[in-house]
Fold:
Amino acid sequence: MRKILIILISLPIFIASSCDKDPEMEVVGDVEIIFRANYDGELFLTQKDYEYIPDMSIKFSTFDLYVSNISLLKEESSTDESELVEIDFVDLSFDINQQSRAEEGDTVFTKKVPAGSYKGFKIGFGVPADLNRTSPNDYGSGDVLATSSHYWAPLDSYIFSKIEGFVDKDNDGIYETSEGEGFTFHLGRDEVYTERIIFPSDPIVVEDGQKLEIYIDIDVKKLFNMPIDQFDTNDDNLLDIEVYDGAHGNQEEELIIAKQLMRNYSEATLLEQ
Amino acid sequence: MYKALLVSLLCLCVVMLFTCKDKTKPPAPGELTHISYRPKPYPYNLPEGFPRFEVPKDNPGTVEGVSLGEKLFFDPLLSADNTMSCSSCHFPHLAMTDKKARSTGIDGKEGIRSAMSLINVAYYREGLFWDGRVKTLEEQALLPVEDSVELHNSWDEVLNRLKKHSEYPALFRKAFGISSIEEMDKYLAVKAIAQYERSLISGNTKFDRFRRGEAVLSEEEMRGYELFFDASPDLPDAECGHCHNAPLMTTNEYLNNGISEAFTTEDFTDKGYGLITGNPLDNGKFRVPSLRNIILTAPYMHDGRFKTLEEVIEHYNSGGKHGPNVSPLIRPLNLNEVQKRQLIAFLETLTDPNFTQQN
Structure:
């Protein structure tokens, strides 16, 4: 009898405490981040000719990157962040037969975030140091970090971004593998990880129960901007790609180039809502 | 009281007798429930430093399933004339290949490509065969039985033979818990074969032991390793590790490695991956094979055009042939003769003794 009485008394308290949670439930919205690529303003497609410098065309075959630590910032100076993505892989290697897919871009799905107005958008280009200490063997197949094609074991690092293709060095209209006209930039190592905070002119507004689309446009040509004279003898502010046609971060020169190309992601990136 | 107890005991005896009688009763024709079904999970025992692989939820590996799959894999009953099995093109002592440029089926007809090694095939997430035409091992195992240039049989005939066989019905029961012979079907057969194929894990090469700190590479092998993975700033990059990354020695990608000259995407005799994706820019691309046990798997490439590793290295050293979609990683390497030998010395460390024995 006494037990029944205790249960009867406890039950309403339990129900009441459960009901209390409702008003405290967070008001959240969805954010979708869509990555798109262009080459000097033109839709970026692999296997398509673009002008690198006058009299030298360029054709890409691969363009991809890891993005990480993406979050929304409440205030410009605050550390009040809402994380959207810890790590994801963006592949923008759509070729000339996949134009509509290139126009749509590669979508990264994010966590739900508290509704509200945000002033800043933070994004990391590459794999941050804590995750870069892991390797594909630590992940089950299907995980973005399980991709062995983007891991370089001798340097214990993920390849943060791959940019591969050909330049027509002799301007004969043919991209020759046997003449070494290929380029392969495999950018990685902790030193080249880059973070950027973008403060758009209009705040990013996440509404309760609504989906917000944020577009990140990357100008691939700007990734080759080169302020270091040693690697820009043509004085056109672009990497002398016909000479420096690869960077794996192993040689000292390659590491300098890799750092610059990864740093260029900051100025090559535009945010649109 | 005694009377009641006596009656109860008598009843119990009658019930027990009945049960015993039931047990000795022969099973109905085709019934398999008298055979115990107690499958034990298969211990895949992944080598240290190896990634996990996905096992389909509807086909978890069991000791009994792997055992049945192995028996089927080696059984010529699968072919129309009882002369060939899966193992006729995938010999265990040849790293699950057949040393032929193009494999030959029961009618002496030659296929268009060489038999791929099945080592570590459990990790092939990006499709199977040289062109990635099927997604899973279960789907893959359905095809060779009915392929006219392979086993040239029909699954109806194979099942007919399996059902009449003195051992298979019981083995299917033990692996999958079927109640009667009638439940034996091709989907269970390929599930078993797939389970066996997933068990073909190689992780015991000298290079694996080197990575685990259990072996030391010779000077020549070490230089070859550094060339292969571009691990030394003092040596040229032989560009191998990009596509043949450790520990699987493949990245499972589809690439054109410049072995066939082509001026347009329509010029490839064998269009490979492009036939599957329908994208002409994928023509001439093939799966990057694993280099495990590469010493044993000559001749090389999808059509076996290179007889020796020396020829393969010469091809890559030359920068390859022109093609509209050749990988930019194919470029003149300028390796000297010593460096070429060092590369081969390293490739020899990729031989796993578990796949060199005659079964």
